[in-house]
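mind reviewing both lines:
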Amino acid sequence: MKGNAIVGQSGGPTSVINASLAGIVQAARDAADITAVYGMRWGIEGFMAGNVVDLSAEPDVAIDALRRTPSSILGSSRHKVTDADLPAILEQLKAFNVRTLFMIGGNDTMDTIHRVTAYAAAQGYDLCGIGVPKTVDNDLYGTDHTPGYGSAARYVALSAQQAGRLARDMQKVDQFVIYQSIGRDAGWLTAAAALARRDEGDPPHLVYLPERVFDPDRFLADVREAHRRYGFVSIACGEGLKYADGTPVSASRTTDKFANVEYGAMGGSSVGLNLHRMIADAFNWRGEFQITESLCMCSIDRATPVDQDEAFLCGRAAVELASAGATGVMVTLVRTSNAPYACTTGTAPLKDVAVRAKPMPDDYINDAGNYPTAAFLDYVRPLVGELPAYASLLYTPVTRLTPPGRILP
């Protein structure tokens, strides 16, 4: 049914989420069944309050510039839609004559589209709902990878590479360094740090991922061995590491008088700090930790061309699906070749994406649980692109000369 379309951005941003928005707007302007394309200010939360802008009125130059603009330009929200919200959402859809709903986001966003379209149908209102994937965590079900992941993975790889040089050159001062990456339940982003390791002795030496139970005794043994072999140790870790009983590593192992788990410094949010404390206590070494948090979500200077192009492609594909009569699906990326890399789009049902996640496969993590495998590196390398090659020196020793007739101490 002919009417207006609306698009919203939800959850954390990425470096390329606006490229998907540009793809939607440009394609929607050419779609015969879409009268105008609107935008939600501040996601579904803003939409319920009637905060809607006319993206059709934006100049072409501004829409095109979105492809190179980081973060979520419409403003985001993490509001979780409840059943009580659905009547208000439907009222706004009717008020703006919205017949096509696009949302760019992750699992919760896909659940929102699914529930809104199902409610609209139950109320006799024709509404098409299409999801566009977005997350730096890369844990969305049904897609080879998510727009935003490749650029964030490059951020992590470059950070690990450069921090690794720092750790190598400062090893006489700091015997270890820990780099903490976001990724609460999935290690896709943290694992990208392994791309920085070109030679056997290069950092990072150890990588710990949420898909594996964290064993502190095994961890300290790994650290001791790496330090013995390389003279220092570089570690990458995901923020979601957990002990065997499910307790986050970001929490302490003790409880207060109310039997509540006590959290460490920084509100228990820092795995890196707690691992730092473990190593310092066990070996009496000095070390550093680096936590970038959300910077990888908005660093357009490290965005990859592949990621930008695919994000835009997903936006256009969403409009094409809607025009073809599809609904209740999320656009997916389908890898058709790895060497040379090639990718196209497909679909996954929103109801499946909303309730399922995609952890790293077992064959992407080594048996020791402390490093990604070559299979993972083959998977991620085309998404990240080439990393810079830095200088190496031979360090050829110079023999000290002894002047004639003089005995040197």
User: Anything to note?
Assistant: The chain has a mean pLDDT of 92. The first strand starts at residue 3 and ends at 9. Residues 150-299+361-384 form a domain with the Rossmann fold fold (CATH 3.40.50.460). The chain has two domains: 3-148+302-353, 150-299+361-384.
